[in-house]
Design brief:
binds adenosine monophosphate; UDP-N-acetylmuramoyl-L-alanine:D-glutamate ligase; nine-stranded mixed β-sheet; four-stranded mixed β-sheet
């Protein structure tokens, strides 16, 4: 089953304690699309500027990602510069230029309007809503957001939350959105805003899943070295939704497996800068690490 994603397609400049990278391919939609493409066909909706190189479009095409919904506009591509602290769970946004993204109105190609699995990646909630309103056969909608939109477009975001099944969000953003410091209380409060499931990403500490009837916790895959955490959240979401769309199994068991696949893909993303590691990754490597993950968390046998 194919997945539609809307989000940013970006140039990122990144500094981490391990090094830096200038103007590499990034953006919430880029990470999500490449991660999900290991499991399901992906259709991407986004905007790029005149400065966006063909080389990056080719990278998407090689992963079989449908680019009909990418619009090239006059101006520069969305640009983000971030710096990570020694504690990689903490990062500062040093620069954020919306550029061609400001005022972008997503118009879906006809061939996208039948999409059933949808990921509303981190982008202006007004654009997330525009996309939802053009879809005819929605089966499952997952959504991400960040502090920038929670603080600046809270009202619009609340409307989106009323129309989705799954919210994928960082712990600090869950606190900001709910006004609750305790993460369990934060999740409970977000569940009241609309989503049936809340997935709280806690960086190197893993993911917590909350629904009305269950809580599930997984660690992050332990790595000796993390080069660049950028895109871990979006890659997690891509692996997660990609696997769900492939199996169609939305049961608690299916969701839990999807969470582990998402965590596995994210663990590869952070092994190198930007999208580099994902471009050399194979499904065999994903399956192998999935098995290691099963062993890592097995305390029952
Ligand atoms: P993640 O590390 O998964 O939270 O996502 C990082 C990606 O988000 C980077 O590649 C950035 O280009 C992108 N990004 C940063 N700020 C924003 C924003 N305000 N809206 C949308 N995308 C953003």
């Amino acid at each position: 089953m194919s997945i539609l994603v809307v989000g940013t397609v970006a140039f990122d400049s990144i500094e981490t304690p391990r090094g830096s990278a200038e103007r590499v391919l990034g953006g919430s939609a880029s990470y999500f699309a490449v991660a999900a493409s290991f499991f399901s066909p992906v259709q991407i909706v986004g905007v790029i500027g005149e400065d966006f190189p063909k080389e990056y479009l080719d990278l998407f095409s090689r992963r079989g990602i449908n680019l009909e919904g990418i619009k090239r506009e006059k101006g520069e591509t969305f640009y983000w510069r971030g710096r990570y602290h020694e504690d990689l769970n903490v990062r500062d946004t040093k620069e954020l230029h919306l550029n061609v993204l400001s005022g972008f109105v997503p118009r879906l190609p006809e061939s996208y309007k039948e999409a059933e699995y949808i990921f509303l990646g981190n982008i202006d909630p007004t654009m997330q809503m525009e996309v939802l309103n053009q879809l005819r056969k929605i089966r499952l909608v997952a959504c991400d957001t960040m502090d920038h939109w929670i603080q600046g477009s809270g009202h619009e975001l609340r409307k989106v939350l009323g129309r989705i099944e799954i919210l994928v969000i960082n712990d600090s953003e869950a606190r900001l959105l709910s006004g609750e410091h305790n993460i369990v209380r934060a999740a409970r409060s977000i569940l009241k805003m609309g989503p049936k499931v809340v997935l709280i990403k806690r960086g190197e500490y893993g993911v917590l899943q909350f629904s009305d009837s269950s809580i599930f916790a997984t660690p992050a895959y332990p790595l000796e070295e993390v080069f660049d955490p950028t895109g871990a959240g979006d890659s997690f979401a891509g692996g997660f939704l990609g696997y769900l769309a492939r199996t169609g199994d939305h049961s608690q068991r299916g969701l839990r497996r999807a969470i582990v696949y998402g965590s596995v893909v994210a663990s590869f993303t952070v092994e190198d800068f930007g999208l580099k590691r994902l471009t050399t990754l194979s499904l065999e490597e994903i399956e192998e690490r999935y098995q290691r993950f099963v062993e890592l968390t097995d305390f029952h046998t």
